[in-house]
UniProtKB/TrEMBL annotation:
Residues 49-237 form the Calcineurin-like phosphoesterase domain. This is Metallophosphoesterase. Signal peptide: none annotated. PANTHER family: CONSERVED PROTEIN, TRANSMEMBRANE PROTEIN WITH METALLOPHOSPHOESTERASE DOMAIN-RELATED. Pfam families: Metallophos.
Length: 302
């Protein structure tokens, strides 16, 4: 009797695990969701400004459903589009990314890259990142395939979008002057904020800081310079979360409580929005209690 009970218990656990994995890999990771936030950073009586924040597409060539969902976001008619990296997961993925972004490319836009815009995926233990943040500059870095980074960069720049990889610029969007500063991915030590640092321009209406990885050294520096809204991705919102608890990791030094959504950046007046992103690493194609997302950030008066 006891053996039968233990067998039944074991069978039940295996069945529950299989069902959970099936849900996470086949259903939730394709439950694309639009999230909306109001962020109070504008001057009193200013008209709202809407930013569409996209991140972590991790695009594969055959992911037509994702491409069509992102393309449909053009119907939201945002004032500005900001993309915070990890667009690619395959050497043939650039056409898919551009197909997804095409209805948005006529709008004012800006972008930074993440590590997965430079090197392709490598098969690895998908749960290793729960123990420690991944290091993209491990000894096997050179074994990962090069991705067509410059093809993607050229297409976005040719469309008029600002390349913010260790750069600073101004653009017009929604009738406002917007100052933007960005860094290349801190996760692989490509960031060089000192080369673009400095106090915000007082004549700009909005000041945005942009990075793929929400590394504290970068966010602290941007906030200290006066940038009111910081945008990042990379965390996937934890990707596999515990219901009623949240993310188990952010894969960087960002607190787990800030793995996604809008938060005050500690010790400053800046707001931080971390996107949970729209994709997954190809070797860990699951999401649980953390559906893929894009966000509309409506900037409103303080």
């Amino acid at each position: 009797m006891r053996k039968r009970s233990l067998f039944a218990l074991g069978s039940g656990i295996l069945a529950a695990g299989a069902a959970t994995f099936a849900y996470a890999s086949l259903i939730e990771r394709n439950m694309f969701t639009l999230r909306r936030f109001d962020v109070p950073v504008l001057e009193p009586d200013a008209e709202p400004l809407r930013i569409l924040h996209l991140s972590d597409l991790h695009m594969m060539p055959e992911q037509r459903r994702k491409q069509e969902w992102v393309a449909a976001l053009g119907g939201l008619d945002p004032d500005l589009v900001v993309v915070t990296g990890d667009n690619l997961s395959d050497p043939e993925a650039v056409p898919g990314v551009l197909r997804a972004l095409d209805p948005l490319l006529h709008l004012p836009g800006a972008f930074v890259f993440g590590s997965n815009d430079y090197r392709g995926p490598r098969l690895k233990n998908p749960f290793a990142y729960l123990v420690r943040p991944s290091s993209e500059y491990e000894e096997d870095q050179l074994k990962r395939p090069n991705l067509p980074t410059e093809d993607l960069r050229a297409a976005l720049v040719d469309a008029g979008w600002a390349d913010l990889n260790n750069a600073r610029t101004h653009l017009k969007a929604g009738g406002r002057s917007i100052e933007l500063v960005g860094v290349d991915d801190p996760h692989i030590s490509r960031d060089d904020y000192p080369s673009v640092s400095g106090p915000i321009a007082p004549d700009a209406d909005v000041h945005l800081g942009v990075t793929h990885t929400p590394a504290s050294r970068v966010l602290n520096a941007m906030a200290a310079d006066g940038f009111e809204l910081l945008l990042a991705g990379h965390t996937h919102g934890g990707q596999v979360c515990v219901p009623f608890y949240g993310a188990l990791t952010t894969n960087c030094d960002l607190p787990k409580s800030m793995a996604k959504g809008v938060h005050r950046w500690p010790g400053s007046d800046a707001w931080l929005h971390v996107s949970a992103g729209l994709g997954t690493h190809p070797t860990a194609p699951v999401r649980f209690s953390c559906p893929p997302e894009a966000s509309i950030l409506t900037l409103i008066p303080r």
